[in-house]
Amino acid sequence: MSVRxxxxxxxxxxxxxxxxxSGASVVKEVVENALDAGADQILIDVVDGGRTLINVVDxxxxxxxxxxxxxxxxxxxxxxxxxxxLDIKYMGFRGEAxxxxxxxxxxxxxxxxxxxxxxxxLDCNTGDVGPSDWQTGTRIRVSNLFAKTPxxxxxxxxxxxxxxxxxxxxxxxxxxxxxxxxxxxxxxxxPKDQSLMDRIAAVMGDDVLGRMYEIDAAxxxxxxxxxxxxxxDPTLRRASSVxxxxxxxxxxxxxxxxxxxxxxxxxxxMHAREFPLCALYLTLPNSYVDxxxxxxxxxVHFLEPTHVRSFIIxxxxxxxxxxxxxxxxxxxxxxxxxxxxxxxxxxMNFSAMAPATKVQGCVCERRVPQNxxxxxxxxxxxxxxxxxxxxxxxxxxxIGQIGNKYILATKGDNLVVVDQHAAHERITYEKxxxxxxxxxxxxxxxxxxxxxxxxxxxxxxSDDLKNAGxxxxxxxxxxxxxxxxxxxxxxxxxxxxxxxxxxxxxYGHSSQLNEKLHLKLANYACHHSVRAGQKLTMIEMDALxxxxxxTERGGQCNHGRPVYKFIPFTQIDGWFER
Length: 578
Prior knowledge:
By secondary structure, the chain is α+β, with helices and mostly antiparallel strands. Helix content is 30%, strand content 22%. It is built from 16 helices and 26 strands. Strands 5-4-3-6-2-1-7-8 form an 8-stranded mixed β-sheet. A hairpin with a 3-residue loop joins strand 20 (397-402) and strand 21. It is globular.
């Protein structure tokens, strides 16, 4: 078979297959061009999910006639003033977007740079450039998307689904650039110069107000990394990652390092099938990150991914670990921040643990017979309820117990309800976490045979495994030898190493051992904590509240359930129509 050069129109259509997948892809590329042109107001109109019309108007710098003619040529760009691909400061830079879009649609560009006597219009079907009455910025009008490639057209989803994809793109760009105003179909509006919290609420919904933690931390290393933005209180979560917005040097990304770090940070405060909300912005020198790895520019490569991941995990866990004393929050919503009653040392004997009983998603509670009556135990030395509404204790003053499951207290103008089992479970778990992992040296190493690529993947994180109590080394090209393992951990190590290798190859890291340790500690804490149905004295209830106030991550139990809730008296008044 002889070698031939492909015609230009086919080259452009092949490039379009990499860059233009749907109407949302077109919107992304065109709006990014508007941002790079300095626009601070962008209007977007989309008809039929983009298949009929996409119209984007900006007030950016516009183009001259010469630039307008060149902009639809492949690899023509104004965004690489030098040839250094490691110092890219623009959203778009490949020079493939406009010619790719033009090859699969009917596209007309109107522009004016404010210097020429008039604006200019380019018909991308014919390549003709002529005068236009356009006065400011640029308008790109894309119609009949994929009409020139019917095979691609039939793979578009319903108009509603495509429109939601367009909205998702606009939301990400709006989160990336708060200094710019965005209007989509005159329905979704994101005014320019919004505060970050206001923009987050506009994008994610009003339920985030008062329930997000602010993040702002700089790395102590020479890389000059900074992480800022907001993460959600663990009691605020979604069923998917839809409201996770991650940015690297102002660029919206879907990066496995960042996603993995976010998951690891929330590991012991949120169920694995639930997702936190976030708007996190990572900045670092351009030389430490490569953005030129994906045609759609949604993926990046870090020069030091392990350092980036550990910095993010530590920053987020430090914030989530603040007690309610360190991080007071609004009392009119569900919040968590704190959690110990009994200060006796806790011995960890995992091999003696009884089989777990699962109750409502929580491995816990062989229940004691419950007394449904509300009772305040009589005890002369018990703490007395405060008469004033300005008690300085974050969880207020105990007034009693209900159903032998919940502790009631008053704080200011709120009734505080505390789940006694969840509270003590968190307290016990945090104490267990302070214990050093007991490591058992093996007289005869455990040898696990793996594929050579799996062996190489595991050896790249051998230091992380050692910190988790597992000492491994290569045993030839196709096996791993385990020389030390966590004491009392009897499991199928071949399956564990296979899972670790799969995770490392997919994400560049593995949290398998940490998650297994978390599960063991969580189950142990669950079985050695105050039960639901257990009657407590006023002194014990007060001690539990005081302990939870100084315990890290005390707003949620180890399975992600809330520990306490504040109910405003005004809400109770409403129940009784007062």
